[in-house]
Amino acid sequence: MGTEVLGFVVTLTLLFCMAQGEVRYYDYVVKETPIQVLCGTNQTVLTVNGMFPGPEIHAHKGDTIWVNVTNTGPYGVTIHWHGVRQIKYPWSDGPEYITQCPIATNSSFLQKIILTEEEGTLWWHAHSDWTRATIHGAIIISPVNGTSYPYKFDEQHTVVISEWYARDTKDIIDEALASGGDPDLSVAFTINGHPGDTYSCSDDSIYNLTVVQGKTYLLKIIHAGLNEEMFFGIAEHNITVVGMDGAYLKPLNTNYLMITPGQTMDVLVTANQTSGRYYMVFSPFTDTNAPSNNNVTRGIFQYSSYNQSETPALPELPGSTNKSDAGNFTIQLRSLNSAEHPSTVPTSITRNVTITVSVNQQPCPANQTCTGPDGSMHSASLNNISFSNPSISILQAYYNNINDTYNKTFPDSPPFVFDFTGNVSAIGEVANVSTEVLMIDHNDEVEIIFQGTNLGAAENHPMHLHGYSFYVVGMGDGNFSDSYISDYNLVDPPYVNTVGLPKNGWTVIRFKADNPGVWFMHCHLERHASWGMAMVLVVKNGVNEDDRVLPPPDDFPTCSGS
Ligand SMILES: [Cu+2]
């Protein structure tokens, strides 16, 4: 760190010494880095600071973190702080063309990450094209000094599950969008960068967690993969899920979990079995007709006194198409809802929105050959609108009242009503391509009903909202019906930022729109988001001076030509 930077840190510390929490400073350099994961795929990928996974951020609840992001890569990138609400400050949120334009090659953006209520595990990742495949890392948020975890453990370890691609992920998605066909599948899953011993050429790089008999370990599991949901378990050991997406859960004891891309889970495991070696396995949940990577990856949970010759035991995990085991895990999740960590579920809904979530097709343009289904192009939509990126960021246009960047006409209910999860063979699969935002009044109590449809290749969609966590008050199979409202959990529903919408099912979320700004909402399966399964919420300013979006930073990356 140079003297100038040090001086800057001192200034910041003085400026913020009266604010709650500490101020922390990190330097992130995005750069091309040679990383070998599998033989034959030795390649150069984009990383932060040369690391895969990238550097961890460690903070306490309520801290403010400054990250100076410098891009030395060949094209523009952005970084998103996944699950951080960024109260009134969407300027650092990161999704390209939503809140900012990419940080250009050889330029920097000093991003401010404002922690408030978040406590537990979150993560950061690139939010441009598919660069998040290798640009991601953990954000570990401990309780403030003087308060404690609502559970006991001896050691904590970060467990990042990622997907490895055989070639440049920007090339993969650029080519797929041009042809309309399926993007390449990943060729391996990795645990903390290690593919493990189910792949050739990788036996010497298995993730090993050495444990001591009787001790309890807190695993901070982050699903940084792009396109596949995963089951996870450890042979002969039960696990206890105690947190998710930066909030605490009631302890849930189980022998497996299901985690979607975008989610984090804090899990306790006690080394209470016979000393030995036990596989910890991630295996995909791929309940769809779409092509998928069905490999598994495994690490070893290894007692310090293990017998070297022993072959590790394998956990029994649900099969890759086992929708009921995936759902049975998810519906058991409950907020801790204690005196220290109370649930505050909105109960006076002032805005009710229903959104269909579909995989679609677009006709192939004239004079072009397309490689999507039946010669068409893959597409995806929310309320039959396939999101199209504007040329300048929506936040920039909104804040500066620039017209013709987006429309404020995202509908509150599906434009077509049909038997969403039934036989849809007679329903056209074409969606409207447009840049639509949903305008929401400040402090509205919002309910969103996500309704999956059977169009295209139906599957579980991990829906992610920026700027908020939300309560998941209901979830089920088939078409939503008002008769389910009486079964909502308004007491201790999980408080998360990413929720799996079951294949051909529905999910209901609630949140209070108390964070003004421009907030992206999208499926966290990257191929679906790239195909347009995305939309933007604009939460308007309140009347009080205190309830308005803060001014932009001086070095905010705007777009050329604006
Ligand atoms: Cu999806």
Brief characterization of the structure:
8% of the residues lie in helices and 36% in strands. It contains 5 helices and 32 strands. Residues 1-19 have low confidence and may be disordered.
Strand order of the largest sheet: 10-9-12-17-14-15
Strand content range: 35-45%
Largest sheet: 6 strands, mixed
Q: What is the strand tally?
A: 32
Give the C-alpha Rg.
23 Å
What bound compounds does this protein have?
copper (II) ion
Q: Give the class from helix and strand content and strand pairing.
A: mainly beta
What's the shape?
globular
> Which blocks of ≥5 consecutive residues have pLDDT under 50?
1-19
Determine the N-to-C terminus distance.
Answer: 34 Å
Helix share of residues? Answer: under 10%
- Compute the number of helices: 5
Question: What's the average pLDDT?
Answer: 93
Features:
binds copper (II) ion, 32 strands, single chain, 6-stranded mixed sheet, 36% strand, 8% helix
Structure, explained:
Helices cover 8% and strands 36% of the residues. The protein is mainly beta and 562 residues long. The strands form 7 sheets. The chain has a 6-stranded mixed β-sheet, with no helix packed on it. Strands 21-20-25-30-27-28 form a 6-stranded mixed β-sheet. It starts with a helix and ends in a 23-residue tail after the last strand. The model is unreliable at 1-19 (pLDDT under 50). Copper (II) ion binds at residues 461, 523, 525, 528, 533. Residues 461, 523, 525, 528, 533 line the site of copper (II) ion (CU).
Record the SSE blueprint.
Blueprint: H1 3-16, E1 23-35, E2 43-48, E3 57-60, E4 64-71, E5 79-82, E6 107-114, E7 120-126, E8 136-142, E9 155-164, H2 169-179, E10 188-191, E11 208-211, E12 216-223, E13 229-234, E14 239-244, E15 247-254, E16 257-259, E17 264-270, E18 277-285, E19 297-303, H3 323-330, E20 351-362, E21 377-382, E22 385-387, H4 394-399, E23 432-434, E24 437-440, E25 445-452, E26 461-465, E27 470-477, E28 495-496, E29 498-501, E30 505-512, E31 517-523, H5 526-530, E32 534-539
Parallel strand pairs: 1-4, 3-8, 9-12, 11-19, 20-25, 22-23, 24-32
Antiparallel strand pairs: 1-2, 4-6, 5-7, 7-8, 9-10, 12-17, 13-16, 13-18, 14-15, 14-17, 18-19, 20-21, 25-30, 26-29, 26-31, 27-28, 27-30, 31-32
Bound molecules: copper (II) ion.
Residues 461, 523, 525, 528, 533 line the site of copper (II) ion (CU).
